[in-house]
Amino acid sequence: MTVTDVGFRHRRADREALSGVSFTVQKGSCFGLLGPNGAGKSTLFSLLTGILPLQAGEITVGGLSLRHDLKAVRDIGALAPQDLAFYPDLTARENLSFFAGACRLSKAGWREQSAAAIETCRLQDLLDRRAETFSGGEKRRLNLAIALLNAPRVLYLDEPTVGIDARSRQTIIAAIAALKAQGVTVIYTSHYMEEVEALCDHLAVIDRGRVLAFGAMEAVLARHARETLEVRLLSRLTDKGRALLSGSGAIWTDDLNLILPASAEEGPAEAFALLTRAGARVGQAAWGVARLEKAYLDILEPGAAA
């Protein structure tokens, strides 16, 4: 997929929703699309899936132009939207049957694809229950299963795990990882940074309709999220010990909690040695946590993640 200099302005809007947006997505990868609410992610998803018409720029998917091959682009893709897209008064089985018909699947194709979607999203025990009785996580799993019915080569996931229980979240994350392993290209947007970091190979961060950062996950982390050791002390340090840590770049959140910088080469060992020299009694320490969240904040507001 290639997005080149895409711009879009909604009717009566006082500014563009997207301006000069460009990035590439490698076939068979999981691509994270990040940004705060109102950044333009939903508009971009609507353009990528052909819901909105292109106004400026070009988008190609699998070598197909969105301007000239819209039907073909839609045929190879599927969207699992943030707003649940199924009929609550129908059972899971009835919903799958209805949407298989909407995809114009043959009877054999319907059986094969629905079986695969049911297995992937673990819906076996829910098929004959009305969707309105489902938990939030079960609804998200049905939402994803419907998107898988046409065996998409490109899958667009808009906040697929928002507001659900841990078990359903793990089911969906495992399903995404399995689809990626099968060669499906996944475009993924989420506010759960740990999920994006675990699943995505590349990412783009957009805000106010512009791309602020784009690249491989590790490259973005290396540039924007320095390694740190987050420490909770059992007791306050002496003035001398505190001065030693502060002089080495420690950031204090209060008298017992601090963040120590550490080199990627040495890892936490260097930071622990410094704590020992300062006479610190460590109660809890966390290494390498929330790296993408730190990078994301630094991209949006340089220095905010320090």
Protein model, in words:
The chain has 306 residues and is of the alpha/beta class. The protein folds into two domains: 2-220, Rossmann fold (3-Layer(aba) Sandwich); 228-287, no CATH class. Helix content is 37%, strand content 24%. Strand 7, helix 6 and strand 8 form a beta-alpha-beta unit. Helix 5 (136-147) packs parallel to helix 6 and helix 8 crosses helix 11 (291-300). The longest helix is centred in the middle third of the chain and has 16 residues, at 166-181. It is globular and about 75 Å long. The chain starts with a strand and ends in a 6-residue tail after the last helix.
Structural class: alpha/beta
Low-confidence stretches: none
What is the C-alpha radius of gyration, as a whole number of Å? 23 Å
* Count of alpha/pi helices: 11
CATH superfamily of the largest domain: P-loop containing nucleotide triphosphate hydrolases
Number-wise, the strands total 14
Distance between the termini: 34 Å
Strand count, sense and barrel status of the largest sheet are: 6 strands, mixed
Q: Taking strands numbered 1, 2, ... along the chain, how are they ordered across the largest sheet?
A: 6-7-8-3-9-10
CATH class of the largest domain: Alpha Beta
- Which second-level CATH architecture of the largest domain applies? 3-Layer(aba) Sandwich
Beta strand %: 15-25%
Write down the overall geometry. Answer: globular
Helical amount among residues, as a percent range?
25-40%
